[in-house]
Amino acid sequence: MKIAICSSMVFSEKILETKKELETMGHEVLIPNFVNAYLGKDEKEKERLTQYHKSEKDAIRAYWEEIQKSDAILVLNYTRRGIENYIGGNVLMEIGFAHVLDKRIFLMNPIPEIEYYKSEIEAVKPVVINSDLKKI
User: pTM score, two decimals?
Assistant: First the structure.
């Protein structure tokens, strides 16, 4: 299966780890082009890079094109900013893109308790894999 990983770039190290694991399992994996620029940076610097890539490099549109090529997305949702299983606005949009494109949607962890987001995420009926990549 061809899987696009969707995640906050704060989790760039996890993106690469998960990519390797999925490839070992025989999947083709798509990740954001800029992921290596985030490695070893603190959260503040990663946030600055995220804004730059979105506004100057059209990262949202670029990843929309990758999602179109995929069979499914895997959302890496870990604790961030004190929110368990965090999903940010950009990843929420990517979930919406995948839904409209009839792609399968997998969440690494349960749907977060984020006001206004939870019902939208539930509506697209993602498969929660609870960190078990074999469930894909």
Answer: 0.96
